[in-house]
Amino acid sequence: MSTETPSFLIDAQLVLVTSILDRVVPPEGEKPGAGQLGVAEYLDRVVAASARLKKLFTRGLAQIEIMSHVQHSREFSDLPAEQRDAVLSEVESAEPEF
């Protein structure tokens, strides 16, 4: 992750967003995943500029952590890839706007 100070998301949320991004575009061999390319920090700056996005991201990220704990009693970032994918699919179904 970047050493840049977050604009809106707290550190735990940035770790979560990085984990999510790495499921969307996972690392492969020597190639980094989206989480290692500064995408989370970019999203943080974009979200910080919009009250609507702040609300959407806050709710969506909370739902991912809640679903992780309900289904697996663990934080999303601590889940294996298959369980992360299942949690993301569940949240996508429940919160399609996120």
Which band does the percent of strand residues land in? Answer: under 5%
Number of E strands: 0
Rg from C-alpha positions?
13 Å
- Mean pLDDT, all residues: 92
- Give the end-to-end Cα distance, rounded to a whole number of Å: 23 Å
What's the total helix number?
A: 4
Q: Based on helices, strands and strand pairing, what is the structural class?
A: mainly alpha
Overall 3D form: globular
- What string, H for helix and E for strand, traces the elements in order? HHHH
Low-confidence stretches: none
Helix content: 55-70%
The main sheet comes to: none
Could you explain how this protein is built, in words?
- 61% of the residues lie in helices and 0% in strands.
- It has helices at 11-24, 39-48, 51-72, 81-94.
- The chain is globular.
- The mean pLDDT is 92.
Summarize the topology.
Elements: H1 11-24, H2 39-48, H3 51-72, H4 81-94
Helix pairs in contact: 1-2, 3-4
